[in-house]
Design a protein that fits this description.
85 residues, mainly alpha, 4 helices, globular, disordered N terminus
Length: 85
């Protein structure tokens, strides 16, 4: 693991997270329902707004937003509240 901040989310959460080559990978297990929600969101973005996006990019953007919110708001962040349920 490098010693630098693990933040490649486009200049500290500018959150473009477009189609770029990624040098690290993780495996995330989701319920069928969670995956269905991601797929429906992806399809909706394309069908209603003409925005073509892959599942990985959706997940990277969501993670970047959650981390940015936590860094900015700490225990008042949505991430913190959801983890403390």
């Amino acid at each position: 693991m490098p010693d630098r901040e693990p933040v490649a989310f486009v200049e500290e959460f500018g959150v473009d997270a477009g189609r770029i080559r990624h040098d690290s990978k993780i495996t995330v297990y989701l319920s069928a329902e969670d995956l269905h929600v991601i797929e429906k969101t992806r399809a909706d973005l394309c069908d209603r707004h003409g925005v073509r996006v892959d599942r990985g990019r959706l997940v990277r953007i969501a993670v970047a937003q959650a981390v940015a919110d936590y860094r900015a708001n700490g225990t008042e962040s949505d991430l913190w509240r959801r983890l403390k349920r």
